[in-house]
Design goal:
alpha+beta, FAD/NAD(P)-binding domain, 2 domains, eight-stranded mixed beta sheet, 23% strand, binds flavin-adenine dinucleotide
C-alpha cells in the first residue's frame, strides 16, 4: 500500500495530525483548495489558548491537564511559524473586574489568553507550517476534491473522480465546508452519526470605540447567558476588534462571518451573537433546519445576506436603503464595513428568523448594553444569516476512531471542535490514535 494514512482536509486539524504522523507513517494530505490551512488560513486567526473555548473536554474524554499540554504544543508551533508573540487576556486584575461586572447581570464572561494572527498573516503562517511538513516527508495534493470514499477489510480507497488513492488508515477533517459532503459519505460507509446542536444568530457591528474598553483587555470576549424569555443559551463568539464583516466565500450558501487584519484597521468592531439550538423528534436534523433558514433568507435578499439596523428591529420595521443612513434615527453614526445594496440587502430579520431566535437576540443585546454601554444604539448593525455547522456528531473512541475500524475524524466538520486551536488539538488526538495501532 502506498500510503499508511490519508488525511482529507488540510485545515488546522489535518495539518497538526500530519505533523504528529510524520515520523511513523507515509502520509498523503488531500485538499480541494489551492492553499493549506483550510478555513483557518483565510480567517482572522485568533488563537484561543483555553480549554474552555473551541472544544468540549467531555466530548473529547480529555482531562484539563492533557488538553492544556496539547494547547501549549499547538501555540509553540504557531509561534515557530511566525505568529505574533503578543498575548491578550493576561491582565488578570482587569479581566476579573470585567468578569464581576458581567456577573452582576447574570452573564458569564469566559476569559482566556488569546493570540491574534490576522487575516493578512494567517495564510503565511500556514504555508510555513506546510513547508516544514514537506521537509519531514508529508505529501500534499492540493486542488483535489475527494468525491468518494470506499473501503474493504484492509484499506480505504479515496477517489477524486479520476484517480484512486489507497491507505491503511483514513483521517477525515473536512471542516464546515465539507461537513455536508462527509455526512453523505459516512452514511454510505455505515459510520454511526448523531444530530448535535447548531448555532444560529447574527453578526453585530458597532463603532470600535464602544467595545475598545473590553477588547483592549480581552481580544475576543466570550459573554454567555441564559435568556429569560426562553431559557436558551446565547453567547458572543469571534470578536474582531477594528475588523470587517465578511461573506464566507467557500460555502454553497452565502453566510456572514467576520475578521480583522493585523496591519489595516477599520473604525468598527464586530462579533457573532449565537443561539445554540437543539432539536428533537420529529425534526432532529439540525443541518436541514439551518439549510432551510439559509435558503429562505437568501430568497429574501435575492441571493445576498441581510442587514438591519437595531433601531429598525426594535421598532418592528424593515431596514430600507432610503433610510439606512437617516440622521434623525442616528443611523449616520455607523458606516457598515460591507456595502449596503451591492453586498448585503437591507431587510427585516424578524421575517427571516423564527420568533424565538429574534427574542433571544433582542434580549441579549439589551443585556449586553448594560455591560458595554452603546451596544444597543439604534445604528448598531445586525447581519444574517450567521450559522455555524458543527452539528453532525460522530460517536468515536477517545482516539477519535469512528464506528468504522481505522477511520478517524477530527476538527469542526466532524463536530469535534469549534475553532483553530480545538481543531488542531483533535487532529493531534486522532494522529495519536492512529500511531497506537
Ligand atoms: C471568516 C472566518 C473567520 C474565522 N475566525 C476564526 C478565528 O479567529 N479563530 C478561530 O479559532 N477560528 C476561526 N474560524 C474558524 C476556524 O477557521 C475553524 O474552526 C478551523 O479552521 C477548523 O479547522 P478544520 O481543520 O476542522 O477545518 P477547515 O479549516 O475548514 O479545513 C477543512 C479543509 O478540508 C477541505 N475539504 C473539505 N472537503 C473536502 C473534500 N471533499 N476533498 C478535499 N478537501 C476537502 C477544505 O477545503 C478545507 O481546506 C473562522 C472561520 C471563518 C470562516
Amino acid at each position: 500500500m502506498k500510503y499508511g494514512a490519508i488525511i482529507i482536509g488540510a485545515g488546522p486539524a489535518g495539518l497538526f495530525a500530519a505533523n504528529e504522523l510524520a515520523d511513523s507513517l507515509k502520509v498523503l494530505v488531500i485538499d480541494k483548495k489551492s492553499i493549506v490551512g483550510g478555513a483557518g488560513a483565510v480567517t482572522d486567526g485568533k488563537l484561543n489558548l483555553s480549554t474552555k473555548i473551541g472544544m468540549d473536554l467531555d466530548e473529547l474524554k480529555l482531562s484539563e491537564e492533557e488538553a492544556k499540554k496539547l494547547i501549549r504544543v499547538i501555540d509553540k508551533i504557531f509561534l515557530e511559524n511566525g505568529a505574533d508573540p503578543t498575548l491578550s487576556g493576561t491582565n488578570l486584575e482587569e479581566v476579573n473586574k470585567l468578569v464581576k461586572k458581567a456577573a452582576k447581570h447574570d452573564v458569564e464572561l469566559i476569559s482566556a489568553e488569546q493570540r491574534h494572527m490576522g487575516s493578512d498573516s494567517t495564510h503565511k503562517i500556514m504555508k510555513s507550517f506546510k513547508n516544514k511538513l514537506e521537509s519531514k516527508g508529508i505529501e500534499f495534493m492540493l486542488n483535489t476534491e475527494v468525491v468518494k470514499i470506499k473501503k474493504n477489510e484492509d484499506a480505504f480507497f479515496v477517489s477524486n473522480g479520476k484517480e484512486v488513492f489507497k491507505s491503511k488508515y483514513l483521517l477525515v477533517c473536512p471542516g464546515r465546508s465539507g461537513a455536508y459532503w462527509f455526512r453523505a459519505q459516512a452514511k454510505e460507509l455505515g459510520i454511526a452519526t448523531l444530530y448535535g446542536p447548531i448555532d444560529v444568530g447574527v453578526r453585530v457591528e458597532i463603532p470600535a470605540e464602544v467595545y475598545d474598553p473590553i477588547t483592549n483587555i480581552l481580544y475576543d470576549p466570550k459573554f454567555k447567558l441564559e435568556t429569560r424569555c426562553h431559557r436558551d443559551k446565547v453567547r458572543t463568539f469571534c470578536t474582531n476588534p477594528r475588523g470587517r464583516v465578511r461573506i464566507e466565500r467557500d460555502q454553497e450558501y452565502k453566510l456572514i462571518n467576520g475578521d480583522a487584519l493585523k496591519k489595516m484597521k477599520t473604525d468598527n468592531t464586530n462579533f457573532a451573537l449565537l443561539y445554540t439550538i437543539s432539536l428533537t423528534e420529529p425534526m432532529g436534523d439540525t443541518t436541514e433546519f439551518a439549510r432551510a433558514i439559509i435558503t429562505y433568507m437568501s430568497q429574501m435578499g435575492k441571493g445576498k445576506p441581510l442587514v438591519q439596523r437595531w433601531g429598525d428591529l426594535e421598532r418592528g420595521r424593515r431596514s430600507k436603503i432610503e433610510t439606512f443612513f437617516d440622521k434623525n434615527c442616528g443611523y449616520n453614526k455607523l458606516k457598515p464595513t460591507l456595502e449596503v445594496g451591492s453586498q448585503v440587502c437591507p431587510a427585516d430579520l424578524s421575517l427571516g428568523y423564527a420568533g424565538r431566535i429574534i427574542d433571544n437576540i433582542k434580549e441579549t443585546i439589551t443585556v449586553l448594553d448594560r455591560i458595554v454601554e452603546g451596544i444597543a444604539h439604534p445604528s448598531t448593525l445586525l447581519y444574517a444569516p450567521e450559522i455555524k455547522f458543527y452539528d453532525t456528531k460522530y460517536p468515536t473512541s477517545k482516539d477519535l476512531e469512528t464506528s468504522v475500524k481505522n477511520l478517524f475524524v477530527a476538527g469542526d466538520g466532524a463536530g469535534k471542535s469549534r475553532g483553530i486551536v480545538g481543531a488542531a488539538l483533535t487532529g493531534i488526538l486522532a494522529a495519536h490514535g492512529i500511531k497506537k495501532k
